[in-house]
Input
Amino acid sequence: MNITVLGARSIGATLGKSWVRAGHRVVFGVRNVDNPEVQALVKSLGDRASVTTVSEAIALGDVELFAIPGSAMDETIAANARALEGKIVIDPTNKMGAPVSNSLATFAAKAPGAKAFRAFANYGFENFGNPRFGDVQADLFYTGADGDAQAKVEQLISDLGLRPIRLGDNSQAAVADSVGRLWFTLAHGQGMGRGLAFKVLTR
Output
């Protein structure tokens, strides 16, 4: 797949690296293309990775990961709404302190033709780079419509080594976000550390 990763910090860099290693092409979209850290990241990933501006990166991707600060989400979505038509978009960003931590309502209002998913918001970024706990594979909870786009999102989750668990369409996004709040409570509030993930067990 051709994947656009907006942002190249913790989450964006971690996911981008793993997807390149899984055989995908990743273009990072950033505000400062000449940032030395971003240039070093792209160089380390070889010819399957590149970097350009946010708007140019969106035009190149089939899947768009918005790994940018929560405060920049609404503006970025609105500015690129037309280019997002028909694209798979993934929202991993938590708007810390806001009544709703995801940006799905903004995607629905500003870019209704995009196929939006809420994923990669449950854990700290370290768990995306190393999602196994001994012999146990961590689960990743996500929401979004079923169909072809769902299959691609699940492939991208699986390519990281995580097991995808769909909680339903985006009407269930609050449930997914509550998993993220549980993670923060245990990892930070209870001092269990960031190397923490969840596993669904069934009989």
Observations:
- The first strand starts at residue 2 and ends at 6.
- Helices lie at 10-21, 36-45, 54-60, 70-79, 104-110, 126-129, 148-159, 173-189.
